[in-house]
Design goal:
Strand content: 5-15%
Order of helices and strands: HHEHEHEHEHHEEHEHEHEHE
Bound molecules: S-adenosylmethionine, 6-(5-methyl-2-OXO-imidazolidin-4-yl)-hexanoic acid, iron/sulfur cluster
Structural class: alpha/beta
CATH superfamily: Aldolase class I
CATH architecture: Alpha-Beta Barrel
Number of helices: 11
Number of domains: 1
Distance between the termini: 35 Å
CATH topology: TIM Barrel
Shape: globular
Length: 334
């Protein structure tokens, strides 16, 4: 049963279960609601890189931190479509474009992003964007252009938010999520662990996600990628069992959503990632770069999929019809 009325106490009880019991329960729910052999593979492209006005303490793209990234203005539509076409020809079915913006502005850059969305949509791929905060009318324009999903993370709990970001509020984030939902766009919303938050903060963030009027269709769980020059560069590495615990709890609370094992995979071994899939993760970002930091190569992921008996999921899969006949595609060709 899908529930939107979880309490913090209930979530804490799940989160604090002995690890193997937690994984067993999550795996059981996962196989009840989803095809456990399928993993959604998203191709990510940073269409506007760095120079961001925000102060997100984890982010290499914030202009105020001195990181090694290569700043790049908004790419030309042709370049992006060329990239998308290459991805499609190689078998990719979901294409996600990211921009280092605080928010969308109603200017020529937004018009260009709309063009990109139309172009990628016309190729028959699921189009996803992450462009910062947006208004109701901007969400409608994106929907009209054919946007399938919008990524906008809560990142951490409402209580810990101010320690990580001071240039915007939690309510502004929630407001954008509401605008995305109203426009009929699929919601992709999750967070990061390893920011220095407590277990209670993680439980609170999961509670916010699981008590939204509708669960996000997709929930990225990122492990902090510690980037030199950011305030969090010296944070300790995220413990794999924390990642597994987070994924398993998300899977139990939101059984039908895609739970994405997102940033941090380069620091995880194959057995560690396998544990995350066992705990209910069923989506990854593929390609040797996330937005600005490294990610495992297609070859490595393909070898992992083969080893674990996983298949890349076909796009436009109806979340309701689990019995659809799905043709596996080879990640090596993406
Ligand atoms: N600027 C837009 C925004 O903040 O919504 C879109 C791009 S932003 C880079 C997308 C997400 O990437 C952030 O919300 C955060 O969850 C994630 N992210 C950024 N830097 C990260 C890092 N160093 N480690 C893990 N996740 C990170
Ligand atoms: C998400 O939750 N993780 C992705 C995607 N959404 C856009 C981004 C991770 C970024 C990691 C740091 C970087 O590569 O710049
Ligand atoms: Fe800007 Fe997004 Fe990075 Fe924050 S997370 S600094 S808003 S690009």
């Amino acid at each position: 049963m899908i529930r939107n009325n979880w309490t913090k106490e209930e979530i804490q009880k799940i989160y604090e279960l002995p690890l193997l019991e937690l994984v067993y329960r999550a795996a059981t729910i996962h196989r009840t609601y989803n095809n456990t052999a399928e993993v959604q593979v998203c191709t990510l492209l940073s269409v506007k890189t760095g120079g961001c006005s925000e102060d997100c303490a984890y982010c290499p793209q914030a202009a105020r931190y001195h990181t090694d990234i290569k700043i790049h203005a908004l790419m030309q539509t042709d370049e992006v479509l060329e990239y998308a076409l290459k991805a499609k020809k190689a078998g990719s079915t979901r294409f996600c474009m990211g921009a280092a913006w605080r928010e969308i502005r109603d200017n020529r850059d937004f018009e260009r992003v709309l063009e990109m969305v139309r172009g990628v949509n016309a190729m028959g791929m699921e189009v996803c964007c992450t462009l910062g905060m947006l208004t109701e009318s901007q969400a409608e324009k994106l929907a009209d252009a054919g946007l399938y999903a919008y990524n906008h993370n809560l990142d951490t709990s409402a209580e810990y938010y101010d320690e990580i970001i001071t240039t915007r509020t939690y309510d502004e984030r929630l407001n954008t999520l509401g605008n995305v939902r109203k426009a009929g766009i699929s919601v992709c919303c999750g967070g990061i662990i390893g920011l220095g938050e407590t277990h209670e903060d993680r439980i609170n963030m999961l509670c916010t996600l699981a008590t939204l009027p509708e669960h996000p269709e997709s929930i990225p769980i990122n492990a902090l990628v510690r980037v030199k020059g950011t305030p969090l560069e010296n944070n300790p590495k995220v413990d794999i069992w924390d990642m597994v615990r987070m994924i398993a709890t998300a899977r139990i609370l939101m059984p039908e959503s895609m739970v994405r094992l997102s940033a941090g995979r380069t620091e995880m071994s194959i057995p560690e990632q396998a544990f995350c899939f066992m705990a209910g993760a069923n989506s990854i970002f593929a390609g040797d770069k996330l937005l600005t930091t490294p990610n495992p190569s297609f070859e490595e992921d393909n070898a992992m999929f083969e080893l674990l008996g996983l298949n890349a999921m076909i796009a436009f899969k109806s979340l309701k019809s689990k019995t659809q006949n799905l043709k596996p595609i080879n990640v090596a060709n993406l």
